[in-house]
Every structure is written in structure tokens, then in C-alpha cells.
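Why does residue order matter? Because the sequence determines the fold. Keep that principle in mind as you read this record.
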Amino acid sequence: MKQRNQSPKNLQILQKQLDIQSQRFRQAYSSGDYHTALDAASKAHRLIPNNIKPLSDMATTYTYLEQWDNAIKTAQKILRLEPNHLNSLDILAHAYGAKRDWQKAGLYGHQALTLRDQQISQKIHKLPDLATAFMDRDTAPKQNLISFSLFGNRSEYIETAVINAQIVAKIYPTWQCRFYVDDSVPNEAITRLSNTHSQVVKVTPEQSKLPGTMWRFLAMDDENVGYVLFRDVDSVISHREASTVKEWLESKKCFHTIRDSGSHTELILAGLWGAKAGSVPNIFQLMKDYLQKNTKITRHTDQYFLRESVWQYVRQDLYSSDRIFDFMNAHPITDIGFDYEKTHIGCDEGNAIFTLTSTDLNVGDKVSWQLISQIDPCLNIDLSHNLRGEQLICQYEALIEKTGILTGKIPRIYAQGIPTKQSRIIFKKV
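Structure:
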């Protein structure tokens, strides 16, 4: 049946309804209220069923809610309308990966990566010249670095940062961790991060104007650095990752990327790439130039910057380690020490939530909690863990938000020991 044209008045009413749902979606999505965001996107879809935007918003929120089958169904519906819809390809790779259907995850992820590469290539008239890496300019000894950004006082970031500082000598014996921080990081955390294999660098006032997640890229400009790995502070380095990095070093290529999960469909994952320092010339200025043109800052600004400004360098001399997508002459990642049910390279390791109940806790109470564990934070190659004498791992303060309940976040390796009493949490009011 042919749809009748709507009157201007009806169109105004429709637009007002859409504006209401659009605002609801944006507010709920930005605050992490994905159930409300899904409701808003669904209502917008019913108002304009042939428009892709509400469907795309629905697929995205289904992904955050881990409703994988609904995410797949919605994304496939979009692809029937628009075969190169990038967000839908990303979602299908992510969702099929979550369902452990790696063949389909690889199929859709490869399409997403290829499409992104084509979009960037179309914008570039001439590839930029790679700079000579610092390690190739002179014979002076260089330090290999694993570079992180750290800001704030949240346990889910500080504690994984500390684990990286503690285990780097076992995983990367000749490397050092470097943490770029600002004044928001507690002094006690800075002390814990500072040792013979780990260093803390406080960003300058000018550098602090960058989004915090981009500070780690500053190591690219350090003339005393040889190779540098850029990692997320809530992920933990591993033997399997180190074996992949070793393959890259042996290749002599300037750049390295890793993909080990269905969600790894960005051209450069901000926490899973490496370089010969100096290969991208003056990255600090490159970041400032990008931010001058792109003033809206989001939690993905670091990855957008890498896609728009750094990929054109990286793709020229790249060793790609890719378990899933077979993109850019990808090399396989070893299966030794691999169990996706437990972890993967780049996994968020700081987000295990503990919950304690007590009738003594009331809303607004200030509580100090301590994590105590026998578990050594350095996993063995087979992902088993070793025990040591019980130690105080960390201590944090929290406000009770719900009567009788204390919650917090700790690294997954310690959380795994709670059922076996190898880890425990105690608390007291302060």
C-alpha cells in the first residue's frame, strides 16, 4: 500500500516525538543506562521504521546489554538496507565473537576493517614519509618501553597498573613500564608504580590538555626509546602477548598491531599497537593538530586520532598479529596460553565486582576496604597462578550507596581466589 504524504502539521508532531526520543537516547547512553537507551531507540524506530539511525542505535545498545542474538538480528536487518553499514559490521564481529563463532566474527570484522582502510585511503592524496626511528639514527643505547596513561583514583585502573609494574620483569625482562600521570593519581599509587622496572612521568601543563588516554602516545617522541608498546592501563601484559611482540621485533617492521577479540575491528586499537619510537614524527604536534580540528572529545578520541592521523604511517610498514580477521597480511597468534573463557590479549582485567553485605552499613557511610590475597599476580604460561604468603594488596575508601551493601572493583586474578579463600576482602567504617 502506498504511503500517503503527511501534512506539515503531522510532520512537525513526528519531528517533536523524534526529538524527545533522541534526547532520551543520548542522555541514557552517555550515562550508561542502556535499558532506557534501548527503549528510546526502539520508540524512534517505530516512528520512522525505514530509517537506519534508530536501528543502529538499537543494535549498539543490544551489544552493551550483551543481548547478542538481538544485536545480530538488528545489525543484519540494517545490512539488508545498507550493505556497507560500518557500525553493523562492527557489531556483528563483536556479537559473533561473544558467541565464539569465530568464522562469522572474522567474516564481518574483515569487511569492517577493509571498509575503514578504504575510507581513510580515499582521504589521502599522498602517504606521508615515515621518519627514521630513533634507534636507527645513532648507536646510543635505547630503552624499550610499555607506555600507559593513568589518571584518577579508581581501583579498576590503579590496581591493574600496579600489576603491570610488578610483573614486567618476568614478562618483558629488558623492558620498562612507563605511566603518564597527572595530579589526580594518589601519591601512594605513584609510589607503588615506581621501581627499577617501572617509571612514572607527570605530564606537563601543555601535555595535560590532551585527553588522558592520549598521553601514552607521547613516548613516541622520546629520543631515548627504542621500541614502544602502547597498552590500556586496565589490561595486563602476558606471556602470550610477549611472544607475539617477539615475532614483530624479529620482523624488523616499524609498526605492530594485535587483534585477539571480536571487538577488535578498529584499524589501530589504542591499547594494542607498537612502534619504533620516532617513526611517526612529532606525534605531540600531530595530536594537537587533530584536536584543533576535532574539538568534540569522546572516550574513543584516542582511537579516532590513530585512525585519522596515524594509520597512514602504520599501514606502510606493518607486522599485523591477528587471530580472527585476516587483515593486512595478518600473522597468527600462538595458541599457547590461550583460553578465551579466561582472558585474551587486551582484555579488561580490572573490572571484577565484589559485593559484601552487612546490616551495619547505611547509605552515606564511609567505609575503608582492603583486598588481601595469597595469589601471585603473574600468571604462568598456561594461565595457572602461583600462591605466596598472604599479602595486603590494596586499600580504598568508598561511600555506601545502598543500605547493607558494599561494592567495589578488583583485578580478576584476585577475584578468582575469593571462592577458594585465596583472596578475601575486609572492611571497616571510617
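The chain has three domains: 13-122, 132-332, 352-429.
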